[in-house]
Amino acid sequence: MNELLQNLIGLQAIEFGESTGKNAEAAAAELRAKIPPQILGHYSRLAAQGKKGVTAIRGQTCTGCHMRVPLATVMTLKHGTDIQLCENCGRYLYLADPAETEAPPAPRPKRGRKPRVAKQELHPV
Question: In this structure, what CATH number is given to the domain that contains residue 74?
């Protein structure tokens, strides 16, 4: 993950109370200085609405809006060449760590028809 996304995630952790510390305001100011103004402006608009500005991708799905993300966006994030926005919710995207993702649920057994029971005769012989 590139440094810009790490700075955004760190800033989000401080602003949304996920990271506590004595120097939270100083750390937030230091991170804001490292982020370009255009990206910081977009992030701040989302934060002003009470939304998190950065969210993970799990299984080609944005965890912010739960919509499917194009494969090209995922591949760009894997290569680390550029930062990407979700086309639906506008949040900055990053790839979730494989250790962070949970195992897929076990498949449920298929429900089929009940087996037929042979009809009994009404009048026994």
Answer: 1.10.287.1490
